[in-house]
Give the backbone structure.
Amino acid sequence: MELYLIIALTLSAAILAGFSQFLFKKNMSKIDSVKKLIHLAANKPIAAGLLLYAVSLVIYLIALKDAQDSLSVVYSLFATVFIFVSLFSFFGLKENIGRKRLLGITLIFIGIVIIAMTIK
């Protein structure tokens, strides 16, 4: 598989995984007891999050399968999920991203770029 397709698949999987985390966080506040956890499948946003998470896993596994000997690169690219979760949290949940968190996100991004530069 073409390297750019592997990168695109990995980033797509990270976006889906990040959005599923957003759906979980936004809707788990409605689950106020352990007994209600049984009814998670009836909660459409939670069910959608579970489905997106499963699709993300399948896409990630496809990228991983065709990445040959680049597990460290593919997994590092998947770390963009931290960036996507922060973006979804900022825009969707109105969470504050302070300077220290922004610095951390920037360092993650720089690390991913450095690792991606090792791709042959």
